[in-house]
Amino acid sequence: MNKIDANEVVILEAVRTAFGRRGGALRNTRPDTLLATALEALVSRSGVQTSMVGDVLAGCVSQAGEQGGNIARQALLVAGFPESVPGVSMNRMCGSSQYALHAAAQAVGMQDLDFAIACGVESMSRVPMFLDMTLGQHDFAGFDNLHPDLLKRFAIPHQVESAELIADHWSLTRSQLDDYAVESHARAKAARDVGLHAEIVPLQGVDKEGNAITLDCDEGIRDVIDRTRMDAMAPVFRSAETGKVTAANASQMSDGAAAVLVGRYGAATGLGLKPKAKFLARVVVGSDPVMQLTGIIPATRQALLKAGLTINDLDWIEINEAFASVALAFEREFKPDAAIFNPWGGAIAHGHPLGGTGAGLMAKLLAGLRHVDGELGLQVMCIGHGMATATIVQRLD
After folding, report:
1. HSE of 83 in the Cβ direction (CA atoms, 13 Å)?
2. Where are the beta strands (DSSP E) in 165-321?
3. Distance (Å, rounded) from C-alpha 237 to C-alpha 245?
């Protein structure tokens, strides 16, 4: 390992809660409680004192209801952090907490802070998607409230239609999308069954009858896929003749939170803390608002260029499976080794709690790199309205 400068930014710890299905085991858990749970586990595992944290940056997409009023600040206080620790909430849609990680790293890198926490949360059970855009409505209605001039210029569709356009552009069949979804569940089940997710923090939830349970693994993973039923599912928007995107080959709406501690190398090692990884590239890009989800391609190219790497140098790739067509388009473009591409499955199986997913995928990536004794990892996420975030890290532990 090359010598690290005392002011270099390193990742010290990363955790995530188990992800619950929308309306499932975490349906009664407030989002600020979810995030507080992740924050408490993060400082406990890392050994850093809460008073040393200079800022808490939280990604959250639907900032309304229980997720409104700056959930970062509320959750850190719920978690018992001193009142001297500030918090800020940010929304870059699905890339929110991955970008929070970038922003936290930048603050530490500029020596504004010695330590910062990047985190994210979404309770899609308790705060319906796009509640903040719809004045009390929810889910897909949010796209009806985009500015008319914006829609005249770009005719931005719902992301499901963008996923269909991606499938059309890369000549992906419905069968290929469904096959990918089946494999995501199979990989996620295999990882869960042998206890590979060292990053997961168990938390209390309830079963269907309302009895208390401990949720220590992702609730959305299906042990058995009924392929006949899957094949019979209707496309979300298009007709059966032209549509390929169904609920089965798209990410699950979920409840969950995650948190990542970053710090200045010299400050961390001076306290006896052991860094897990350092950053080689942090990228955010804009892309076509109509195709919308293809930003992962230029974002990955930029990240690899900044890091001086090729796709074949990587030991682990974690791409958010917003839709199977997005992941398969990435595969078509970069042709990565299938063994390192979402090795433990992805959001189709474990879920996608919007603002919490980015930090969660970083926690998962670091746990995966350690498990395979790998060194280099890429995380990349598509984002609504045409953006993407990408991060490349080098493992140090």
Report:
1. 0
2. 200-201, 203-206, 212-215, 254-264, 277-286, 316-319
3. 8
Residue of 60, 119, 217, 382 marked active site: 382
d(Cα 220, Cα 70) in Å, to the nearest integer? 28
Q: Looking at residue 286, what DSSP letter applies?
A: E
Catalytic residue among 60, 94, 119, 217: 94
Beta bridge partners of 123: 255
Q: Backbone dihedral region of 382: left (phi > 0), alpha (psi from -120 to 50 degrees) or beta?
A: beta
All residues at 6 or more sequence positions from 83 whose CB lies less than 8 Å from its CB, including other chains: 77
pLDDT tens digits for range 237-259: 899 889 999 999 999 999 999 99
DSSP H helix total and E strand total for the chain: 12, 13
Distance CA 345, CA 223 (A): 13
* Residues paired with 176 in a beta bridge: none
| Beta bridge mates, 391 | 282, 379
Output the CA angle 161-165-167, nearest 5 degrees. Answer: 115
The answer to whether 94 is a known catalytic residue is yes
* pLDDT string in tens for the chain (397-residue length): 568 999 999 999 999 999 999 999 999 999 999 999 999 999 999 999 999 999 999 999 999 999 999 999 999 999 999 999 999 999 999 999 999 999 999 999 999 999 999 999 999 999 988 665 544 444 444 466 788 888 888 888 889 999 999 999 999 999 999 999 999 999 999 999 999 999 999 999 999 999 999 999 999 999 999 999 999 999 998 998 899 999 999 999 999 999 999 999 999 999 999 999 999 999 999 999 999 999 999 999 999 999 999 999 999 999 999 999 999 999 999 999 999 999 999 999 999 999 999 999 999 999 999 999 999 999 999 999 999 999 999 999 9
**60 catalytically annotated:** no
**Residue 352 is a catalytic residue:** yes
The identity of residue 248, as a single letter, is A
> Which of 102, 197, 350, 352 is an active site residue?
352
